[in-house]
User: Fold this.
Amino acid sequence: MPTRPCWVEIKTQALEDNFRFLKRLAEPHAEVLAILKANAYGHSLAICAPAVVRAGARWLGVNSVEEGVAARTVCPASAEPDPRFDLHVDSHVGGHLGPNILVIGGVFAGQGEEVIRHGLTPVIWEPWQLDELEAAARAAGIPAGSLPVHLEIDTGMSRQGASPTEVAPILARITPGSPFRLEGIMTHLFAADEADGRVNAEQLARLDETLNRIEFAGQFAEWLNVGNSAALLSGESRTIAELAARHGMKAMLRPGLALYGLVPRFDPDFEAAEPAGLAAAREALKPVLEWKSQVVSVRCVEAGAVVGYNGTFVATESMRLALVAVGYADGLVRALGNSFSLLARGARAPLVGRVSMDQAVIDVTEIAGVEAGDEVVILGAQGEERITAFDHADATDTIPWEVFTRIGARVERRAV
Ligand SMILES: *Cc1c(COP(=O)(O)O)cnc(C)c1O
Assistant:
C-alpha cells in the first residue's frame, strides 16, 4: 500500500562509495568493519547491509543479537565459497560464508542459540555471557573452538569491557576444550575526536599492557578491533596497526558515521590544520540519507491569525502557509517550531507555530508557486539549498548520530 508521503531516501551508491573510500584510507594498515547498529543509524539495515557487502565489506557490526539475525537474513550465507571472504568463518557452525557479523553490545539471556544458529560473533566481557554461550554451544553440540568471540577491554571509558586487571578469569574460560575461539580483542576509543591524541595514547597504552597479559596467559587473538570514524579519519589506523603488529595481530577499525557520509567534528585547531585524511574525506564522503515529505495543502491567512497549538505564532501580515506531512512522531523535534526551516521549491521555508505529532506548518509567503504535492526536504538538498544532519543537531543541542536514529520507524526507507 502506498504510504503517507513522509519518507527517507537512501543513496546506496553513495554508501558503497563511502565504504570503498574508508577501506582505501585504512589500507594497508587495517581492515574495516561497517557499523550498522540501530537500523544502520536509521538508514535501514535491510538496505545498507547488502550494499556494504556489495562494496566488499567482510565485517558488519550490529548492536544486538536480534540486529545480527536481521543482518544475516539480508546477507545470507553464499552457497559457494566466496573468495572475498575469509574461509575461517567456515569453522562456524552452519558454515556461514557470508560476512562476519560482530554483535558489539553482547549477548543477553536466552540469545546464545540464535548466535550459534546464525553464525554471529559476540563481543564478550562478562562471565555470565560465556555461561549463556557455553550452554547454547553444548546444547547445539558444536565442536570445541568453533565459536569465535571478541573480548572487549575497558581501557578507560567505563562503559563495557573487562578491566585490564580482570581478564584472567575470562581468559581461563576460553581454553582449547571450550566451545570458544578468541578471535579478537576489542576496545573503544572514547575521545578520538579530541585531536591532540592524548586520551587515545593513554587508552592504547592500557591496551598494549593488556595484550601483554593475554600473551603471558598463552592466548592469541587474530584481530585487534579498535577505533571509530574519528580514529580512522584522523589517521589513528597506522598507530593501531603498529600496536597490532607488535603483538602479531591484524588491526580492524569500525567506522559508523563516516560510512553514512558525515565527517565528525574535531577540535577547531585540528580542523583548521585540515590534515590530509580529513581533507580527502570531506571531498570524498557523500551523505547517504535524505528525508522528505510533501505539501498537503496551502492556505492564505490574514494578519492576526494564529498558527498551531497555543498560538505560539501570530501572523503579522497576510501570509501563505503550507501544511507538511511530518511531525514529531516522525522525528522532527517539537522544539524546532518557530526556529528552523525546511526546503520547498529550493528555498528555506520557516517552520511556524508548534510542530504537531504528525504535521507541521511552513511559511511559503516568499516562495512563489508552492502547491499541494510539492516535495519538502527536511534533511538533504533541494536546488542550491541543503539542510544537513549537523544543522538539525545544532538546532536541537545534540549530535548527528541522534538526529539519524530518531527518525521514526514509521518513516519509510527507500533505496534510490
Ligand atoms: C557506534 C560505534 C562505533 C562507530 O562510531 P562512529 O563514531 O559512528 O564512527 C564504533 N565502535 C563502537 C563500539 C560503537 O559503539
